[in-house]
């Protein structure tokens, strides 16, 4: 039986991609574990059937090189592509650095599309699966996260369009509406430094990225998603992680004022803001 293969973007140690690489390796797949800096994938390189590849999803030449490597290793097929790489940026809309917000979109949105395009022929040949790591953040207007949340909204929607477009080609697409999962995304986010004239200066110390980010353990999330990609039937929106039930089943029925209150209560320091 031919060994199945999976390529995962964003496999730095401590995150979802790293946990997925470990889980797929346990299941006997050939794993292409990628990161912009492969030295950050930790112990993955010591595992059998794991191939570390440098992949910057914002760099067309890097994507092309990774695709060439996978093509040579698999005979032109890729069974599973997991678009996981992503970055976070905290900042009020009025103070947003547009250049930084555009760079976030380069990773979180265009990087997903560019990577999928590069591996499309291999996925079609394998009748494979694309799993796009979306987020319930794309459905929740959390203060200070406009750039990140809107990028996830874009991916949630793009992934569903892709599902319809790839179905006639025999490729399944999973839109993974992810809730709270233990990862390093908040730890890797840069400190919030507000302009001197910002209306939000009084709460600057309270709105920093949290180093105590908690949620569903990444390994449990990885087991669940691996099952979904390998079951031969799952497609479309799937939900997993902390607060997914609230957003999926309760949020649509809450009055706006209560939903707003819950969002503000989950944004450190923002509730301290007083009207001018």
TrEMBL record:
The lineage of its organism: Eukaryota, Fungi, Dikarya, Ascomycota, Pezizomycotina. Pfam families: adh_short (PF00106). Belongs to the short-chain dehydrogenases/reductases (SDR) family. Keywords: Oxidoreductase. One of its GO terms (molecular function) is acylglycerone-phosphate reductase (NADP+) activity. InterPro entries: NAD(P)-bd_dom_sf, SDR_fam. GO terms for cellular component: endoplasmic reticulum; lipid droplet. Gene3D superfamilies: NAD(P)-binding Rossmann-like Domain (3.40.50.720). This is NAD(P)-binding protein.
